[in-house]
Fold this protein.
Amino acid sequence: MAVTLADIKKLRDITGAGMMDVKKALEEANGDFDAAKDLLRKRGQAIAAKRSDREASEGCVLAKAENGFGAIVALKCETDFVAKNADFVALTKKILDVAIANKPSSIDELKAIKIDGLTVEALVTERSGVTGEKMELSDYAFLKAATVDAYNHLGNKLASLAAFNEADANQETAHGIAMQVAAMNPVAIDADHVSQEVKDKELAMAIEKTKQDEVKKAVEVAIKKADINPAHVDSDDHIESNMAKGWLTQDQANQAREIIAKVSAEAGANIPEKKLEMIAQGRLSKFLKENTLLEQAYVMSESKETVKDILAKDKMTISGFQRITLNQE
């Protein structure tokens, strides 16, 4: 059966597949539309299986909120070229719309929802056959509240949600807080919402950093007393290169190495525990101030107000936030 241009266009409009792929499928199916669609779908499944071990690091992230429910979806692919394709973005939007309409409670539930007779997961696989790239619905997040606002960052690689307890929440402020979440990537609403695991990890890092700083200070003082420039001996590579330049003698290099080894051991063993704990706790407090939403400086404010100040003005309380990004951070 001869395949006409009208047939090719019709199936292409239905599936979004490439012109040559559609033509070939119709020819193999002897003009049977349903059989041709099955062939294209199987091709997508084969490509998805073949490329399952490939890395899908590009993609599209979109968020939307309606009537107290907000969702973010991330559809991944292999290349930025495909990520920016209008059909790929349209598929992401279609999946997001289905999420908003059905309010699934997990990504598995979202993947199982049907669109035009196919599950979301099958649609993604089918699209993989069109592009020839690995694709996956990698992330899904949602919030339910009296008011939920969504923010999509330019480029479709970052999106966020912010939820509030008030049904009459100031929409401009709500959107500003959603932008704050996207821009500043807070770890929690406030210190009470930061897990003990995160606090313990940050405190341990703060203690180690404090020890390193105290040792470095003691070494620099001792090096200066020996009339050696600390910047010339702050690493073995610098010592060797500065000797080659004539800025250090062999004796000075040997002396510096001895001082560094001796003072480092002594200083590390003799840091007062109270001092160490006080400085480390100060660093932890700084971390919590900079990385919890309510304590952060509000990015939309020129007077350095905190998010907590802004919400208090509008008598709003935030109940949660979500953020998904494909950007390297």
The mean pLDDT is 89. The two ends are 55 Å apart (CA to CA). Residues 5-50 form a domain with the Helicase, Ruva Protein; domain 3 fold (CATH 1.10.8.10). The chain is about 55% helix and 15% strand.
